[in-house]
């Protein structure tokens, strides 16, 4: 469950007078920066991410959410869902330790773990900050796993927007989104939504919980396995700002 940062945000709110001028700094993690990699063989790791400038009063709220988001992504590859780690460095240590434990048991195995993660600002203005994460992990087996994630933040408070806070009339919008999904994927309006490669539960369209924004508009990302097989891969449902405009509870950006 995502941490609640409401109280902290309210305490710093008075210091946030310029929502559009929040700077982010780039951070990088490679095996050479991890102390565990000085002691034993290390997996392949490439991690780039951003954090809010620590001099900004909102940074504590925003960076705690970034740490949790990325920490849980990284640790989910080597830990059960009820034991996920909500910080980047401890999550990376857990990933490395898992590989080193495996390598200690099977030193003759050529297998190595892999973690590639890129986290960046995909859209930012005075009403919205959208942070995207694209990642790939491999910890053995026939294939690795790649996916995407987003954090959509209120620049004034630093708190994550819920979808109903961003979108007005969710029922109407979902119906509109289904028509768009059918159009994008060549599925007739009177055909089952699970026609062809897609497998929606109970043949009912739903909006993915993974969504974000970029310069072109809004995108819903359906991870691998969510509406199809591994071979089908992920799916996306994209809207331009003009298309999404009538449903947005925030002003449409003047791009």
Q: Cα distance, first to last residue?
A: 35 Å
Question: How big is the Rg?
Answer: 20 Å
Identify low-pLDDT runs: 1-17
Q: What is the percent of helical residues?
A: 25-40%
So what's the overall shape? flat
Q: What strand line-up does the widest sheet have?
A: 1-2-3-4-5
Give the averaged pLDDT, no decimals.
89
H/E series: HEEHHEEEHHEEEH
Supply the helix-strand structural class. Answer: alpha+beta
How large is the share of residues in beta strands? 15-25%
The total of helices stands at: 6
Number of strands: 8
Largest sheet: 5 strands, mixed
Give descriptors for this structure:
8 strands; 24% strand; five-stranded mixed beta sheet; 255 residues; 26% helix; alpha+beta; three-stranded antiparallel beta sheet
What's a concise summary of this model?
It is built from six helices and eight strands; from the N terminus they run H-E-E-H-H-E-E-E-H-H-E-E-E-H.
């Amino acid at each position: 469950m995502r941490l609640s940062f409401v109280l902290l945000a309210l305490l710093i709110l008075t210091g946030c007078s310029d929502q559009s001028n929040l700077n982010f700094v780039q951070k990088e993690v490679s095996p050479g920066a991890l102390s565990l990699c000085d002691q034993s063989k290390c997996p392949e790791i490439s991690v780039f991410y951003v954090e809010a400038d620590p001099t900004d009063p909102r940074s504590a709220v925003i960076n705690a959410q970034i740490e949790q988001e990325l920490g849980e992504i990284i640790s989910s590859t080597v830990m059960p869902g009820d034991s996920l780690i909500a910080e980047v460095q401890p999550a990376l240590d857990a990933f490395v330790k898992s590989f080193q434990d495996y390598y200690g048991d099977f030193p003759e195995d050529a297998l190595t773990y892999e973690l590639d993660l890129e986290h960046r600002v995909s859209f930012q203005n005075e009403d919205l900050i959208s942070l995207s994460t694209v990642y790939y992990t491999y910890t053995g087996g026939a294939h690795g796993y790649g996916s995407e994630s987003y954090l959509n933040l209120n620049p004034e408070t630093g708190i994550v927007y819920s979808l109903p806070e961003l979108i007005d009339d969710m029922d109407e919008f979902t119906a509109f989104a289904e028509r768009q999904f059918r159009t994008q994927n060549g599925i007739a309006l009177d055909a089952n939504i699970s026609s062809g490669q897609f497998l929606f539960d109970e043949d009912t369209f739903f909006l993915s919980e993974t969504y974000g924004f970029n310069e072109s508009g809004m995108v819903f990302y359906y991870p691998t396995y969510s509406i199809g097989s591994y071979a089908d891969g992920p799916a996306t449902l994209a809207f331009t700002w003009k298309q999404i405009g009538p449903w947005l509870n925030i002003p449409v950006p003047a791009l």
